[in-house]
Fold this protein.
Amino acid sequence: MSHDPLSEDVTDEQLLARIVARDAAALSSLFRRHQAGVYRVAMLMTGSIAAAEDVTQDVFLAVMHDAARFESGRATVLAWLRGIARNHARRKLDRDRRTVQLPDRVDLTEPVAVVHPDPIGDLSNAEEIVALRRAVLSLPVRYREVVVLCDLENLSYVDAASALECAVGTVRSRLHRGRALLEAKMRARLANGGSAGAKRGTRCLA
Amino acid sequence: MSADEYRGAMDALARETTMAPESATRIERYLLDAFESRDAADGAHTPAVKSVWTWRPWMYAAAAIVLVVGVGYVWWADQPPVNVGRQKAQPTVAEHVPAAPPTVESTVDRSSSVEVKTAHPPTPKRKPAKNTNVVTPSGFVDLPWTAGLPAFESGEIVRMDIPAASLPTYGIDISPGAGRGPVKADVLIGQDGFARQIRLVTTSSRSTQ
């Protein structure tokens, strides 16, 4: 089955209206526009590729069934989708918490789609990004979701508040606290001599 | 870490956190299959919420059944094993008295409250009672002034000595030639502290284990 994506001129709200009217091409277009952002939220909330893919699929299944419930006056489609992703991710975290510890779910050997314009020059940078991902994943959930939405997805405070169903002031305070925690974690990592990979590289050069 | 460094690091993290293309393709195909199959199942002009409403009546019916069974069970569990009727000829304290043997043991303790105990089989730890009164929990008669009291639910039996001459006051007839000394009687005290019934104690002293 092939569904050609609709033109970029069609807005997200129009795509949702077409999904309500059973237009499969609209669902395909909406998925291609937003799957990356939804996946990012899910990945940085759950720390697991498999879980993030499940959440992404669940989000668009929810859109398929509940597109008519979207209220354009309350939030943007982008914020609405991230909010659904956050809710599904939290539900998955709650389900998996008893059996799997979150920090153990971040595996350096997991295959992550990575773009390397300059593979040699970005070798240490990749380790830094892995460390940053770990630091984000180690944040308490209430701070993590704000950091992910505002600093990675670049949502406005209003949109983030809409996605999280809380006040804008709450978003501001949690973001401030989340950033401080994240910076402290990165500073602690630097104080401990950086990543294990960097240490291995030092020993090899010596 | 400066704001620019933080911003750059976050942008890099966002760039690097992407779904594998094959996974994206697989999920998109799954979604479109689900979309098409839903169309086929519901019909092209059926509202999206229709499929949800089709199974809800079943859910309500199941919930109603569960509710009825639950309420019935709670009602049944709250019922006392046997109601002690106030107008019965031989009322019994059913919650305290086993089916067999229908005896109640109480120590000989004059004019004191006697806790009703069931007559369990003797156990090795039990001290032998030197002298116990074995009474039959029957023969209670309603006291005359209990008509306006609430129904008996639970209570205890108090053994006491009362003047034989006062027995007619409690609704017990005595023969003209009966003595005037004290007689033993069990008085059934209700949950509210009011005496409900009385019986004369027919004692037979015997030694048990």
User: Anything to note?
Assistant: Chain B touches chain A through 33 residues (CB under 8 Å). Confidence is low (pLDDT under 50) at residues 44-52, 83-136, 205-209 of chain B. Residues 50-78 of chain B form the longest helix (29 residues).
